[in-house]
Here is the input.
Amino acid sequence: MDIKTRDLRRDFGKVQALRGVDLDIAGGMFGLLGANGAGKTTLMRILAGVIPATSGQAVVGGHDLSTREGRLAVKRRLGYLPQDLGLYPDLTPREFLDYIGILKGLDDAAARRRQITDLLDMVGLSDVAGRKLKGFSGGMRRRVGIAQALLGDPALLIVDEPTAGLDPEERIRFRTLLSSLAGTRTVLLSTHVVEDVAQTCRETAVMAAGRIVFTGPVADLVSAAEGVTWEVTTAGPAPAHGVVVSAVSRADGTRYRVVSAERPAPDAVPVAPTLEEGYVALMRRLSPTP
Amino acid sequence: MIRYEFLMQIRKRSLWITTAVLAGALVVLQGDRGPRYVPAGTPARIVMTNWAILLSILLPLGFGMVLADRLVRDRRLGVGRVLDSLPTEPRALVVGKYVGSVAATAVAGLAALLVAAVVEFAARRDVALFGWAIVVFALVMLPGLLFVGAFAVVTPMLITAPLFRILFVGYWFWGNMLSPLFLPSLTGTLLTPIGDYAASWLLGETALYAGADGFLPWLRPDPDATAAAASVGILLLLALIVVLLAGPPLYRRQQQAA
Here is the structure.
């Protein structure tokens, strides 16, 4: 399911959440990176047909989202996992999924129940399918969330900050699950966790202040930090120049990885950048700080 | 959907606590005109109508309170964003939530009346009490509950649930129990959800204030079968209108949500 936006804008009162977004997504797994408040969630919600844009064009799978009919058509083929998903505490996961399945228009009760059983199995919740949701951990709630998004086998899956608050094992499990789902559908992954995109997406876009500031292959974003990524080991203070991306304590001092246009210390050596450093370099270029 | 809204409401502890506390208070505090003092040999219809009108004094107030969060809690719980992304029309969502949650609440009301029937049966040994419990529930309590439920589910979307609850308490005493002789009020009119007209018809005498002189005299016919039917019909019609009109405001809320 392809996605295309042109000069997409959305205002909330005087706040301009989106300031002219141009984006082309052909399919597969696509990462949307950006800091909190960059406009990712607003863009997700417009693409999910939840809210209309103030102006501009958004077309998903050939459906124009400026019309109510277009939004409805997208919703029928959509799985959406919003940020901070809540659940009804007095229902079990099976009941909650059945409730959502009914609202998705899955009218064949037997087929719906079969699919719910399969999804609970897939997300590893079969053993607790009869327990009330109020006792579920954050990771378990996220798994219920992805299961509800997958109900009806949607062609487009939009997941907003899906790994926030998960422990490392849950995060890896979740990423793997999302990657496996992208084979037959479009998965739009919005996150501020660069590692999630690095591990799952070939294509990505970066948002800042309501605009797309980068779009292209993940490798291209990595290259944004080529020549400006340094490694320096010192027992003294952290380098004063640039952005320290990582600091690892060692026996001979602390090893810093730094993104900086200038050599941050006399003994700093240039190193091959990671996606995180590419992202930092891009952001630094957009709003340079001394 | 209705099934799950029903399940969630019937599992709500506050529904049962509210019902038990209010019904218990009414049983204890009923005056000498209360159903406990209806003489032996009185027809089951009269006995159970007395119970229904007694319970209707306060139970709908409690029901309005526990229904007030049914629609707005989706935002509080964080389920609203998923619901917004589904192809269900807002109106269908409101109707489903209304029917499911009010049906579950009605079960609590009916249960209270059936408990009264059991207690009366122990003393009067008249099996007709159970049949009349269901009939008077349908005629006296249910229309008011459907009316109150519609406003309780929909209004908090416009003015917040806590404010609705405060206003609703004021409305309940002003519009149902305040004598129209003291102040202009809806008490004793066809619009009274306390079930006054239906109860008066079943009792063959005025239950509370039905038809009493006062404000809006054209809404105060003498209580009889026609007036009782008119009262039930008007309450159901108003409930239907409120629920059907709730779709567009819910849609606007979705669109404006940041």
Summary: Residues 2-256 of chain B form one domain. DSSP finds twelve helices and no strands in chain B. The mean pLDDT of chain B is 90.
